[in-house]
Amino acid sequence: MTDTLVPRLPLGQWVDWLVDWVTTTFRPLFRFIKDVLGGVYDGLDAVLASPPFWVVAIVLAVLALLAKNWKLALGSLVGFVVIAGVNQWDNAMETLALVLLSAAIALLVAIPLGIWAARNDRVSAIVRPVLDFMQTMPGFVYLIPTVVIFLTGPVPGIIATIIFAMAPGVRFTELGIRQVDKEVVEAGHAFGATPARILGQIQLPLALPTVMAGVNQVIMLSLSMVVLAGMVGAGGLGEDVVAALQRVDVALGFEAGIAVVILAMFLDRVTAALGERAPVSRALVAARD
Amino acid sequence: MTAPSITPPAGTSAPAEPSTSAPPAPDVAVAVRGVSKVFGRRPAEAMRRLAQGASRDDVKALGTAAVIDASFDVRRGEIFVVMGLSGSGKSTLIRMLNGLLKPTSGQVLIGGENLAATDAKQLRALRRSSVSMVFQHFALLPHRTVLDNAAYPLEIQGVGKAERREKARTAIELTGLGGWEDSLPSQLSGGMRQRVGLARALAADTDVLLMDEAFSALDPLIRREMQEQLIELQQRLGKTIIFITHDLNEAMHLGDRIAVMRDGRIVQIGTAEQILSDPANDYVAQFVADVDRTRVLTASSVMVRPAVVVPVTGGPRQASRAMREAQVPAAFVVDRQRVLRGVVHDDDAVAALKAGQESVEGIVRDAVTPVSPDTPLAEIFAPAAESSLPVAVTDDTGRLVGVVPRVTLLEAMVPPDQPQTDESVPGRQATDPTPDGDAPTDRVAADEGGAR
């Protein structure tokens, strides 16, 4: 029925043409982006992967200690030993480098965009459906055009991850700022503060716990996307997961998978703890004592 | 008293106190001239209809008319209270006084400067130098200490750290929060948090202080305490305070003058006593019906001439005759300057007459503690209970200026009758015997009390 009632809509064809056009028109720009991102990634990976395993593991455990407590530090250390024990350490560090780089760039775009959307209803109305689109489109669909544009390697994975993981960063930032007690913002205005001061001294500090929840979400989404990016040869744990899938290798799949889980837990707990350390959150904890 | 007839015709509603064109007098701190605020899509069209006398409901389709044609002058050093129920437009009104909201029409002048003529930068400068604000829910920065919260306006003004901390410390001492400087707001009770809010506004050291339902979120005892403190601070610092509240008792207690708002319009401006004893319309009358009148009305507004006054030089015969004629058991004794000396009782006078005494001087007893004309009625009950005699009202020099009989005291507590029934005696309701059925009962009760 449908093929007679509704003519075939060549939506995919159009997007294909668009991607082709973009690829040829902006080739120098993309080359530049690929060189820069690839270079930064290589550097980050070198920092994480070249020192001996135990040095990096201890540094990360100390970070966990600073962010939260010795329990998290000890748990992280045990986790890292397990990763090394299943011989996934190098892959895990590649994945970590991918996550950190992608999440950092995603946040660099997302937080200012969130601030803008919180201050301007029109921006908010435009940004919201775009974010919905970006977040609900199956993640690996982004890999297709990015591979067309950037070929294989870590860079298409990073680009796809940035797009896929950005949405909660924007959303939580906007929500956090909009949730700030209207009266407190009014107080800033009433005492003659400039908009910049109100943003920096009232809105952002009070929104920080919510913004940090967004940061946490961005990092977790980045991790899930980075694993998928293994399909386009982005390297890291994802590559072993994809290899295990192709060979139906349960053992390898589990080992790579458990390394992803440990990394995820480490990143989640540490970023969540950072959110709890926001001055506003600490002020509320102080009240309960 | 029925609701429908309450809305007054537009032309007569707002007491057009200051004219809309004349510059404000030099002692006027804040001048509000025909200010209206309409939220919504077509404010201009709504304004046009409101000017023609349309009510808030008439222009609903065009927008929400929060404030309609408000005009008043607030004098320097005055506590001016804007009172109205929620939705009456009072919060919108106060936010137009420091430019947080822009009036749809009309002018706001702060110290002679027209707010509408300022750009964003000038407006910020004006807020820093002239108007500060205290908020209903305190609006403190939760991650800053009490001291740093109080210092925040000074930080915005660009005052150096040491100096602003010093000034903030002084303001905190003033509000009675000394010793809590390093606490966080979340560690304080509601009353203490509002003290921080008040300290912050005082630290800004502006002439005008806007207080938006500042004590409404506090429990009654704390609220009372804060009101007393505000009055004391105002007397010490001489700030001009514009206070918004929905609580009539609070308005009456704090306000030198009160503006009553209803449906966006100011329906009456006057002192507490004026509003109580001469309400502009049914709405105000209904509103003030359940106010604690004893805290608002003062001795001077209810006192009457004493029935009998005996000169201290007079004889016992003259005294006893005067008392018999007036049918009172005792009389106040005054000297030539009408300074109160005490009371003389009829049985003492009769005894003195039998004993052949020449003057009443020997039988004068101490009068019950006299009260001043400014004493609220609430504080007259105790002296009134001490004896069956009326309470004497004396001025600063001790001269007897009037008395408050118990009957009058009780009558004053009954709200005035509806304006339409006793328009013949405007302004005298408080002292006139009320013609309704309850009053005689009161009088009997008073007499019984007197006999005991």
Give an overview of the whole structure:
- The complex is a heterodimer of chains A (289) and B (452).
- Chain A starts with a helix and ends with a helix.
- In chain A, 85% of the residues lie in helices and 0% in strands.
- Chain A is mainly α and 289 residues long.
- Chain B is α/β, with parallel strands linked by helices.
- Chain B is built from 19 helices and 15 strands.
- In chain B, strand 14 (391-394) and strand 15 form a beta hairpin.
- The chains are: A mainly alpha (289), B alpha/beta (452).
- The A-B interface holds A 181, 183-184, 186-194, 197, 201-202, 205-206, 279-280, 282-284, 286-287 and B 98, 100, 124-128, 131-133, 135-143, 152-153, 156-157, 184-187, 200, 204, 210.
Order of helices and strands of chain A: HHHHHHHHHHHHHH
- Taken as a percent bin, the fraction of beta residues of chain B is 15-25%
What's the CATH H-level homologous superfamily of one domain in chain B?
A: P-loop containing nucleotide triphosphate hydrolases
CATH level 1 name of one domain in chain B: Alpha Beta
Q: Could you tell me the CATH topology label of chain A.
A: MetI-like fold
Task: Describe the structure concisely.
The complex is a heterodimer of chains A (289) and B (452). Chain A is mainly α.
Any chance you could write out the topology, listing elements then pairs?
The complex is a heterodimer of chains A (289) and B (452).
Chain A: H1 2-5, H2 11-25, H3 27-49, H4 53-67, H5 70-85, H6 89-119, H7 121-136, H8 143-150, H9 154-179, H10 182-190, H11 195-228, H12 237-247, H13 250-276, H14 279-288
Chain B: H1 10-13, E1 28-39, H2 43-51, E2 64-75, E3 79-83, H3 90-97, E4 105-110, E5 113-114, H4 120-129, E6 131-134, H5 146-150, H6 152-157, H7 161-174, H8 190-203, E7 208-212, H9 220-237, E8 240-245, H10 248-254, E9 257-262, E10 265-270, H11 272-277, H12 282-288, H13 293-296, H14 299-302, E11 309-311, H15 316-326, E12 330-334, E13 340-345, H16 346-354, H17 381-386, E14 391-394, E15 400-404, H18 406-412, H19 438-451
Parallel strand pairs in B: 3-8, 3-9, 6-7, 7-8, 11-12
Antiparallel strand pairs in B: 1-2, 1-4, 4-5, 9-10, 12-13, 14-15
Helix pairs in contact in B: 7-8, 15-16, 18-19
